[in-house]
Amino acid sequence: MVRRATGEGGKRAKGARRPELRLPPLTPWSGGGLEPDGDYDGLEFQDADLSGQDGAGARFMDCALAGCAVDGTALGRARVLDSVLTGLRGVGTHLAESTFRDVEVVDARLGGTQLHGAVLERVVVRGGKIDYLNLREARLRDVVFESCVLVEPDFAGASLERVEFVDCALKGADFGSATLKDVDLRGAAPLEIARGLDRLSGAVISTGQLLDLAPVLAAELGIRVE
């Protein structure tokens, strides 16, 4: 069942815990290309072109990436910890099975980002636009999507706990086979769900959103409205 604003029994959804980031003084990255299983600690990547590079399994700790190009960058199984990513841009960035913990992603312009099987914990995605975000089978805990546009995000089979959509456009979302707990969708406008309406148990929506979803819910249940 989809819960309304106050949830079942009048209880409100638990809010997401946001990251508390205090980056240390950073050292400019010297360039030279990413390396598989590389270790990057306390570095600033400014306007770096990382397109097509292979950093699979790398660890980024206390880092800032600003204005970087990540077209086709291979970062599968990477770990991004206590870091701020600002103005990333690219298509087809590969981040499958990666880990993001205590991370802010600000004003990203991404398309076809592969995050299937990833783990996101205490992450804020603020501003920007992400098209065709693949979060299949991912685990999201304490994640906030704020003032951003998500076009056809794929949450199929994912686990979402304490996830908030705040002043966020959610277009054509797929929640098929997903598991939701304390997911607050009230700040999503528009809220467009292409698949997985039957998986929204554990979500909170507003009365207005319920009315907007009514035709789709009716079709899902095989109800004719005449």
From TrEMBL:
Residues 1-38 are annotated as: Disordered. Residues 1-21 have a biased composition (Basic and acidic residues). InterPro entries: 5peptide_repeat (IPR001646), Pentapeptide-BTB/POZ_domain (IPR051082). This is Pentapeptide repeat protein.
